[in-house]
Amino acid sequence: MKSWTRFVIIAVSLLTSAADAQPTPAPATPIALEALFREPEFRQVTLSPDGQHIAVTLPEGDRTVLVVLKIGTKKPLSRWDFGPTQHIGNVYWVNNQRILFGVSEKKGSLDSRQPTPDLYASDIDGSKRIEIPNGNTYQILGRTKDDPNVLWAQRSIEQAFLFKLDTRDGRANTVASAPLEFGSFLLDHDEQVRYAIGRVKNNVLRTLQRQGDNWVTLSEMELGGDDFLMPIAFDADNRRVFMMSSEKGAPRKVILKDPQTGATEVVSENAISDPTEQIMSGDERHMLAVEYQPDRYTVDVINLTHPEGRAIAGLIKAFPKHSLAFGNSSSDGRLRIFRAFNDTDPGAYYLFDLQKGTATFLLSSRPWLSPESMATSRPISFKARDGLALHGYLTTPRGTQGRSPMVVLVHGGPHGPRDSWGFDPEVQALATRGYAVLQINFRGSGGYGQAFERAGYRLWGTTMQDDLTDGVRWAVEQGVADQDRVCIYGGSYGGYAALMSPVREQSLYRCAIGYVGVYSMPMMLEKGDIPRSPSGRNFLKRVLPESEDEQRAQSPAFNVDKINIPVMLVHGAKDQRVPIEQMEFLISQMKKSGKKPELVLVKPKEGHGFQIPENNVELYTKMLDFLDRHLAPRNPSP
Questions:
Q1: At 622, is the secondary structure helix, strand, or coil?
Q2: CB–CB of 572/108 below 8 Å?
Q3: pLDDT digit string (tens) for 469-525?
Q4: If residue 429 lies in a helix (H) or strand (E), which one and from where to where?
């Protein structure tokens, strides 16, 4: 357990902002790729209800293990390890002495983790371990009032079920059901079932309100629709309900609604961003704050009359150069976990004590990296050619003057995900080697309201690519980018965009890098794990062009005659999301046109994105060599 030698507890006064005291930045120097892509020392930190212990998940090579540590010591009480490719996560404290957690398998760095069937419970000393068959399909809602070993949980098959889960023996007793797929329930403070939210056929989202023994539809919205009400928590009075409210596709607001009178009031909103999370008091009765990501990560404190709300506001002021992400708290509200991070600092966890007014340093994510060596990232905004406001991030090499060669880094998804401000090893690998990095949340990205996301539907290869083009031209106009030295790179949908952009703009880019990308829309409708499920097929039918002719027109593989720049292609042979047949088909189409990629990198044991550290080092070494050949940065790595 050598990683725990860095576990040091240091009291930090909220009046000194010690975490933000930084020396004058030095010019960035290339950081060793092995250091940048080394796994962080921990992934998840959760606090016990009494605030005496923390549960921490630790990446260790091809697995993630779990340890429980008493805060006042340096030694773990116990350890859980399920073997190769198995990753422990979603840790939940049942009570002060018992935890619940799931295990998942991650086949690629760009994949979501696939849960294994079972759930596990254990006392924190490692005793009384049990396996709950098929428990990883459960979602935990919270603790019950009548038994400290029993939790509220929910599960959806063809309809949603609410039940009480006994963590001592795994027994589940059903309490309610609702006619929803992927449904969830909201209980009031008296543990009465009041709402259910989920999907029905064709990806329609529906909110149901309980009236007696019946469910009544409160709100309904098709995928990408405009107006919807989603209850998220009850107010302390147990009558009014906090709801996410979307109107005409604008970013969602948090409102407080009285179900009896219909009266509503807006309690939190942001003109740019949807809410990402709400922060509740330790007793779960008071909403304290709402989190957003309009540009940097921000917290809107809505309850300054509550001592925990005032404490959150004070912490934000105490770390002015960092963003704070707040975790769970002790049940009495005295102690709360939070993480401080920024664009150059991967982040550290602290424990705040409300009574003492101090924040105690717990552990750092990547302590071997120096923030002073990293390139800085700033939020940007500009207007697309049709007047739509677009947002993103621009990272520039430190110590450079004038225009830099630039890499356009395109996120995957494309619908739902977005780029966010914070430390990114991939961005730093490029920026510390002389490349400006441009990340654009093009229309279709998540987090900016339903209308913004819907604006990208069926336009993957047209207007969404124009947004990227407009971003490049903006960076050139700003004097940041050298218009003769721009390359485009991305993974998954980003890999698609990397190859489709030079089809649409044949003179804008000098090279393109496609990483586990989609290159044929017709193939996407037939192969991979998305079309295997009804929800996946419905999603593709909603967001891809309707006719096969248009699908081909928006597919790089059917437009290789227009790709006249050097191309690098990367894929994992075990990719289930975007099978390697996508890349192979693109190469075959290029061959028919007398062309071929300059470089192809395939790893037989990787999936949708590389996750083996040495493979990532090889990937970015070859990528940087490729970029150096075609963009010739002014200060390349030695």
A1: helix
A2: yes
A3: 999 999 999 999 999 999 999 999 999 999 999 999 999 999 999 999 999 999 999
A4: helix 425-431
Residues 550-581 as b or e (16 or more Cβ within 10 Å = b)? ebbebbbbbbbeebebbbbbbbbeebbbbbbb
Q: Kind of pairing, strands 53-60 and 98-105?
A: unpaired
Q: Is 421:377 a contact under the CB 8 Å cutoff?
A: yes
Host H or E run for residue 591: helix 581-592
Supply 406's token pair. Answer: 């630039």
> Who's near 262: CB < 8 A, 6+ residues apart?
none
Q: Which SS3 state, helix, strand or coil, does residue 527 take? A: coil
The Cβ of residue 25 has, within 10 Å, a number of other Cβ atoms equal to 15
Who's near 537: CB < 8 A, 6+ residues apart?
525, 530, 531
Residue 35: DSSP 8-state: H
pLDDT at 11 over 70: no
pLDDT at 137 over 90: no
Whole-angstrom Cα distance, residue 182 to residue 174?
Answer: 16
Nearest to 496 by CA among 477, 471, 468: 468
pLDDT at 10: 29
Dist. CA 90–CA 83, nearest whole Å? 17
Q: What pLDDT, on a 0 to 100 scale, did the predictor assign at position 16?
A: 32
Kindly report whether the global pTM for this prediction surpasses the value 0.85.
yes
d(CA 443, CA 456): 5
Helix (H, G, I), strand (E, B) or coil at 230: strand
DSSP reduced 3-state for 156 = strand
**Rounded-to-10 torsion of CA 621, 627, 630, 635:** -100
Contact 167, 190 (CB under 8 A): no
Say if residue 84's pLDDT is above 90: no
- Domains belonging to the chain, first-starting first, are 375-534+563-631 (3.40.50.1820)
Residue 134, pLDDT score:
83
Percent over 90 (pLDDT), the chain = 78
Strands 335-341 and 63-70: unpaired
- Extended strands (E) in 14-129: 44-47, 53-60, 63-70, 76-80, 86-95, 98-105, 114-123
Q: Transcribe 302-315 into DSSP letters.
A: --TTSHHHHHHHHH
Q: In what order do the strands lie in the sheet with 10-13?
A: 10-13, 358-364, 348-353, 335-341, 323-329
What is the tens place of the pLDDT at every residue in 147-169?
Answer: 999 999 999 877 899 999 999 99
Radius of gyration of the chain measured on its C-alpha atoms: 25
Beta-carbon contacts of 257 under 8 Å, excluding residues fewer than 6 positions away, are 229, 240, 241, 242, 243, 263, 264
* pLDDT value, residue 400: 79
- Does residue 331 surpass a pLDDT of 60? yes
Q: 3-state DSSP call for residue 574?
A: coil
pLDDT in tens, 239-291: 999 999 988 889 999 999 999 999 999 999 999 999 999 999 999 999 999 99
The strand pairing partners of 265, in sequence order, are 256
